[in-house]
Amino acid sequence: MRFKNDGRNPCRLQGWPKVTAVSATGRTMVAERHRTTPLGPFRVFTQAPRLIVRPGQSAFAALVGSDVGPHLQCPSPYHTLSVRLPGSSSTVTLSAWLPGLHSDLLACTPLQVSMILPPTVIRLYPAAYR
Predict the structure, then answer these.
(1) Which is nearest to 32 in space by CA: 116, 110, 121?
(2) What Cα–Cα distance (Å) separates residue 33 from each residue in 47, 56, 113, 115, 116?
(3) How many CB atoms neighbour CB 104 within 10 A?
(4) Listing from the earlier edge strand, what are the strands of the sheet with 112-113?
(5) Which residues are 82's β-sheet partners?
(6) pLDDT (tens digit, 0 to 9) for every residue of the chain, 130 residues total?
(7) How many other β-carbons are positioned within 10 Å of the β-carbon of residue 35?
(8) pTM for this entry
(9) Distance of CA 25 to the CA centre of its chain
(10) What integer pLDDT is reported at residue 128 of this predicted model?
(11) Spatial distance between the Cα atoms of 23 and 65, rounded to a whole number of angstroms
(12) Which of 29, 37, 54, 58 could form a disulfide with 62 if both were Cys (CB 3.0 to 4.6 A apart)?
């Protein structure tokens, strides 16, 4: 997930975003906070770094799920994501559509979310951020 500063002033970020995935039927799952995910970071931080995101710059968090679950069939995929930054009371609702998979975010396993990080310590897939 990309967090771009479209404002005129630097903003400070530290911690994990709260991500709630919602299926078309209204079923929800809150992503579990993890210190590392398959997309990064690839070193364990003792605490979430304090970031200053300048205007026009971005910070990122990895949101990870899987299409291989413990059951033969997965529940209906997630249709939207409700995202709240650390320390904020407002949320943003995003589509859970994954262009590379031609599918909404699959609901086969619990979701994992990383802390918010600079782009240098997380694996980015550029097509996902256009």
Answers:
(1) 110
(2) 12, 27, 5, 7, 11
(3) 19
(4) 32-33, 112-113, 63-64
(5) 20, 93
(6) 899 999 999 999 999 999 999 999 999 999 999 988 777 677 778 889 999 999 999 999 989 887 776 666 788 899 999 999 999 999 999 999 988 888 899 888 899 999 999 888 877 655 444 4
(7) 14
(8) 0.86
(9) 21
(10) 47
(11) 14
(12) 37
Q: Are 62 and 116 in contact (CB under 8 A)?
A: no
- Coil, helix or strand at residue 92: strand
Q: DSSP states of 20-44 as a string?
A: EEEETTS-EEEPEE-S--TTS-SS-
Residues 6+ apart with CB under 8 A from 64: 37, 38, 39, 111, 112, 113, 114
- What's the CA angle centered on 64, arms 63 and 69, to 5 degrees? 150
- Positive or negative CA dihedral for 71, 74, 75, 81? positive
